Amino acid sequence: MTTSTLAHFAILPDGDQYRLRLAMKDGSTTDIMATFDQLDALAEEIDRRLDADQDIPMPSDD
């Protein structure tokens, strides 16, 4: 499995679904079709992850 670095993304309406377009720093793009409910679940999971990470003390640069 290869890991790419995200450069930017867009969410575009496409009929009754949405197209999640991920653009990588190497210039490649990936389009993923998702329903409203799938994007909503993704947003909730991102919020949970960020909230959990916010509570973890970050190491100092000392």
TrEMBL record:
<protein>
    <submittedName>
        <fullName>Uncharacterized protein</fullName>
    </submittedName>
</protein>
